[in-house]
Write a structure and sequence with these properties.
8-stranded mixed β-sheet, 1 helix, Sortase, Chain: A, 8 strands, alpha+beta, elongated
Length: 199
């Protein structure tokens, strides 16, 4: 009798747990859609309908205070403008922001490599979701807190397998910006975009 009661209780718990998880996911999905500015009654969400899409589809609804960031990355071709924090900041976290990798050299400190990483995909933290649209010759810029802007041009794009370790290829005689994100439609690789300073 006791075992039967325990099995019934355990079964009810498992069934209600799955239902609660499903409801939680639906609520968070609606919240993400609302945070991205997509109408809740939209039948289908297209990547170009969310912030970060090319400028002709993007409508800014609020002002962002970029002065709080260590620097700001801008990529006009994909309509990206996003601040990032210094390595020592508690906000320099890939779960919330574009992340400056430890060992990076900001452009205002001379020749070196500023390495920035962010998620791609379709979540609200996928700041590099549209990097796949970039090609050799496309431009981007970094504006450091203080006002100096550094323009870069992409000179190399390559994929590497995800292994927990990333070996970067770049010209050590050039001031470089390297952007790293997951490869579109391939969860086992990362794509590396190498851009060199042009002025």
């Amino acid at each position: 009798m006791l075992i039967g009661s325990f099995l019934v209780f355990g079964g009810a718990l498992v069934l209600s747990w799955n239902y609660l998880l499903k409801m939680r996911d639906e609520v968070f999905s609606d919240m993400k859609i609302a945070m991205m500015g997509v109408p809740a009654n939209a039948e289908e969400v297209h990547p170009e309908d969310v912030p970060g899409a090319p400028p002709e589809h993007y409508e800014e609804t609020y002002e962002i205070d970029y002065s709080k960031y260590y620097g700001v990355l801008e990529i006009p071709k994909i309509g990206l403008k996003r601040g990032f924090y210094n390595v020592g900041s508690k906000y320099n976290n890939i779960q919330n922001n574009v992340t400056m990798v430890s060992g990076s050299t900001p452009p205002n400190e001379g020749v070196g490599n500023l390495i920035l990483m962010a998620h791609s995909g379709d979540s609200w933290i996928s700041y590099f979701a549209y990097l796949y649209r970039l090609g050799i010759g496309d431009e981007c810029s970094i504006t450091m807190n203080g006002g100096s802007t550094y323009r870069y041009q992409i000179v190399d794009i390559y994929q590497v397998n995800k292994s927990g370790m990333l070996v970067l290829k770049w010209n050590h005689d050039k001031t470089t910006l390297t952007l790293v994100t997951c490869t579109k439609d391939n969860d086992s690789q990362q794509t590396v975009y190498v851009a060199e300073y042009i002025g």
